[in-house]
Amino acid sequence: MSSQTSPTRDCTFTADRCTVCGAPRINARQVCGSWRPGLGDRVHDALGAVGITPERVASALGVDDCGCEGRRKLLNQAGNVLGIGAPPQESSS
Ligand SMILES: [Zn+2]
């Protein structure tokens, strides 16, 4: 048994986002800092920065779900193919 702290730590989640690295909750235990924002995350953040949030889009359209999260995941997957962003790695322990 070693008392040294592990070089990697698990993400700390609040409301499905890590409070440290901002990663979305994908794995139950994922290595903190292994996540890189994907294409969809960047679009989401850029729109949010100018006040366009999924909630506002949904209310403007008069629907419960604007589909932003689905598009975000699709964009993230497309970006991963292009080498943009990286999903969080799963903790090995
Ligand atoms: Zn994290």
Model description:
The chain starts with 12 loop residues before the first strand and ends in a 12-residue tail after the last helix. It folds into 2 domains: 7-36, no CATH class; 38-85, no CATH class. Strands 1-2 form a two-stranded antiparallel sheet. The chain has 93 residues and is mainly α. Strand 1 and strand 2 (17-18) form a beta hairpin. The longest helix is centred in the C-terminal third of the chain and has 14 residues, at 68-81. It has helices at residues 39-49, 54-61, 68-81; strands at 13-14, 17-18. Helix 1 packs across helix 3 (68-81).
Keywords:
mainly alpha, 3 helices, binds zinc ion, 2 domains, 4% strand, 93 residues
Radius of gyration: 16 Å
Query: What is the number of helical segments per DSSP (H or I, 4+ residues)?
Result: 3
How many strands in all?
2
Q: Which segments are poorly predicted (pLDDT under 50) over 5 or more consecutive residues?
A: none
Q: Give me the strand/helix succession.
A: EEHHH
Q: How much beta, percentage-wise?
A: under 5%
